[in-house]
Task: structure prediction
Amino acid sequence: MALGPDGAARTAGPGRSAGNHRVGVFGGTFDPVHVGHLAVAVNVGHALGLDRVLLVVAREPWQKVGTRPIAPGEDRFALVEAALEGLEDRRLEASRLELDRPGPSYMADTLAELSRRHPGVELFLIVGPEVADDLATWERPDEVCRLATLVVVTRPGVALLQPPPPPWRSMVVEVPALHVSSTELRARAAAGRPLDVLVPPGAVQEIRRRGLYAGCRDDRRWDDAGDGAG
Result:
């Protein structure tokens, strides 16, 4: 069983088993998506031997509503799709599960929907260490805990302050230290400065084509370089 962008099942590819499907769930605003996001998804997928890694684009990121303007969801989804084009690792997929669901984007709802559509799927929720330290503020954290194994990504030399307590099932995966900030990227785009290398080529083209982030003035307290949705 493989999952398409809408979370629907599709035929498994050559050599893939239809049972015990292992899916990484990496939620975020992706405003814009950048190489740091892709490094996380690729490295976690490889380290854990996942069948798919879904980059789930938030419709209404509840922790950021009212803090700054956010690009339309369809634009952000298009950026993620464009960013994945040409990647050697075909496990990465843009997911619109939250875009197609009305209201705020809660990870508890997303995990529940995936579990309901695909009984027996093993879900791995990918988050940064700062998100892992803030689990108590999430919507229905007990449901998130029950539905997924928490995968906390760290960078070389950065230790996790405190592992999530039981009954959380958790593991740590180290990823390359790519210090890329979506806040800085929006500012660069607004100033007409280059995004090359920091943002995948396809996504850069989409940003320019859609005229995103022109005149952007961000509050730097809010940054989605380590996106996670609650």
